[in-house]
Amino acid sequence: MPIEFTHVPGKTADATVPFFYDFAETATKLGLIEDGGFQKIVVDDSAGLLTNMDLAAQVLNRTASLEVVLTHWAGVIEPTVAARQLASIDRGSGGRLALRMISEPLNDDDAETRPVGHGVVWQRIDEYLVLLKRLWSNDRPFDHEGAFYSIKGGYIERKGPHGADLVIRMGGQSGTALKVAGRHADVFELAPGPIDDIRQLMERARRAAAEHGRAGKLRFALPVRIHQGVSVAGQKTVDLSGPPAQVALSLLAYAALGIDEFMVIGVDTPHEIATAGRETIALLRNSLARREANEFHHGAYAPGAGLETRAVG
Predict the structure, then answer these.
(1) Which 3-state string (H, E, C) describes 113-160?
(2) By C-alpha distance, which of 193, 173, 306 is closest to 239?
(3) Which terminal Cβ of the chain has fewer Cβ within 10 Å, N or C?
(4) Is residue 309 over pLDDT 60?
């Protein structure tokens, strides 16, 4: 499958306003993103989950082909409400929605009734996703009584176009997080770092998915920061700088690991977006096509060849 590119807005160190602050300006950027070779865009606004849902619907309405990766977490709204709203957004877009599940701490009310901890957070995510999938696929109402959610007559009439197969994206490095991701994730978002660490995390994620018969279904996404000048301290991404050809060459080593998607951070102005699409993305795709042709005739290339990246933070 060809490498895909996902735009991650508003994460540059000098950003003064959110990417979606002025939607008239955002619409222009969305056109550049869509035309520049990006297949997806992440919606992750600081205003929270309900704002994310509204923004996702607006982005899908303003674009023709972009997939919206909606950042979401359990605990804000009930599964039946979330399932209904997400199905509606996906249905209105013709099936261009993906759900990016992240972990969030339990709220104060939860803390009063049960111990708060890493494992508890992921248990809730697991139960939440089980219920979403069930609500997106069931043909009759059901009851559920679990550790975190109680549902009576759970049912939504109008399912999304993908039903329970809506793309789920997750990440994490702990054994608990990997166990839940192995059960539910279609796309695993990797933690950036040295290339050997990334390779090991991919192997762990595959083993976790294999326990549920899903190893072959799992795809991998890697966050990368593309910028000019001196790197910014504290950014925990794979950090790339230099001419577009050098950046594209650096990404080749990660693509050789089996990474299917690059989540591009630090490309937010119209000029940056256009340049990334016209130069870096195009160069990488051309390089991959040439390397695949060489592999076919001469064998695989070494994963570390041409690697000029550094982990920051």
Answers:
(1) HCCCCHHHHHHHHHHHHHHHHHHHHCCCCEEEECCCCEEEEECCCCCC
(2) 193
(3) N
(4) no
> Which pLDDT value is given to residue 228?
58
**Is the residue at 49 inside a domain?**
yes
Domain-embedded: residue 303: no
- The answer to whether residues 265 and 11 touch, using CB atoms and an 8 Å cutoff, is yes
Segment holding 88, helix H or strand E:
helix 79-93
Q: Give the angle subtended at the CA of 283 by the CAs of 228 and 62, to the nearest 5°.
A: 80
Say what the pTM is. Answer: 0.86
Q: How many domains does the chain have?
A: 1
pLDDT category of residue 300 using cuts at 50, 70 and 90: low
90 vs 113: CA distance, rounded Å: 35
Among 51, 93, 96, which Cα is nearest to 76's? 51
pLDDT at 46: 80
Question: What's the domain range around 35?
Answer: 4-233+260-269
Quick one: angle between helices 79-93 and 118-137, nearest 10? 60
In a domain, 74, yes or no: yes
* CATH number of the domain residue 96 falls in: 3.20.20.30
Say whether pLDDT at 232 is over 50: no
Task: Let me know if residue 290 belongs to a domain.
Answer: no
Rounded distance, CA 257 to CA 265, Å?
20
Instruction: Determine contact, residues 33/65, Cβ cutoff 8 Å.
Output: no
